[in-house]
Amino acid sequence: MKMMLAENIRAFRRERSLTQEQLAEALGVTAGAVYKWEAKLSVPELELIIQMADFFDTSVDVLLGYEIKDNRLEATVKRLQEYRRSKDWDGLAEAEKALKKYPHSFQIVSESAALYRAFGFDSGDKALFHRALELLEQSRLLLAQNDDPQISEQTIYGRIAQTYLGLGEADKAIELWKAHNADGVHSHEIGNTLAQNDRIEEAVPFLSEALTKLLSDLVSIVVGYMNVYIKRGDHASAQAILSWGIGILQGLREADKPNYFDRINAVLLTALSGSQFLSGKGDEARDTLTKAKALAAFFDASPSYDESDIRFITRIEGASAHDTMGATATDAVCKTVNQFDNAAFSALWKSLAEQEDHHG
């Protein structure tokens, strides 16, 4: 329940063009009392509230202006989320009220844990972290109710580990992350925490695994955005994100040694050329496609699928690189050209390929 008494006293007073002193005189109180009411420093007695309602020709209910909150479960969950987003510390008291009303609700327990964790990280208050741990453990037991595909036992354990890290218990955090690191989802956190705690050699394999996964995801995201923008006809954005991705992958070259991402970059350069061609940048498209062709040839001359040839990455046991673009990088470039399904762009690629054949 939320009351708007202070706001309403001020609003009714101003509506009648009264000063605080004039309202005080009408009610037989001091101007300081009115000031405190409007500043929420004190609340008038019930008799004065009734007297004010009569003075302002309104009802006590309207003067109080109370709003009854929607305390149904879904509305409460959304309210807790908003407290967290707005960093409103009143959310902690609301969370405890909600936990009393819905003690066995996964959503309420999970959102309350998120509130305590957030404010714990904001303030460094260990008591908040300990309350978050209690709630996280409770949410894990209620997980059968969960219908959010982004939350699983693995993600809850990840949050518990982060909370232990907030408490300064790095070893507990690392062990929990390691025990629940399916598909390397926590490798970046493990590697970073190990490195910060001077366990350097132990950190490197986890950081390498995390970087490899990140780069793979990055390529998928860049290609996804490229397809979105090209299908929208927004070639400026397509070219911008392709150029950004190409620049990142170029930084992974170890001296003049080819690596798997040279093959990927040859494909991205080809896609960039296709977008440039479709947007009327014929000369730029030719230059970019020439670079793609040269990079593909560079990779094909000494192909490398060993992740340790990539800058910053050490050998990862059991890792291997695969794609569906063709046996060679040049095949991948050709396939990418064909995917544009544009006769003129295909002719440009053919002319560049024939130049190579002629020089050969």
What is the compact description of this entry?
By secondary structure, the chain is mostly helical. Helix content is 70%, strand content 0%. Helix 9 runs antiparallel to helix 10 (153-166), helix 10 (153-166) packs antiparallel against helix 11 and helix 16 crosses helix 18.
Any overview of this molecule?
The protein is mainly alpha-helical and 360 residues long. It has three domains: 5-64, Orthogonal Bundle (434 Repressor (Amino-terminal Domain)), CATH 1.10.260.40; 73-180, Tetratricopeptide repeat domain (Serine Threonine Protein Phosphatase 5, Tetratricopeptide repeat); 209-359, Serine Threonine Protein Phosphatase 5, Tetratricopeptide repeat (Alpha Horseshoe). 70% of the residues lie in helices and 0% in strands. The chain has helices at residues 5-15, 20-27, 31-38, 46-55, 60-64, 73-85, 90-101, 106-123, 126-141, 153-166, 170-179, 187-196, 200-232, 235-250, 260-278, 282-301, 329-339, 343-359. The longest helix has 33 residues, at 200-232. The protein is elongated. The termini are far apart. The mean pLDDT is 93.
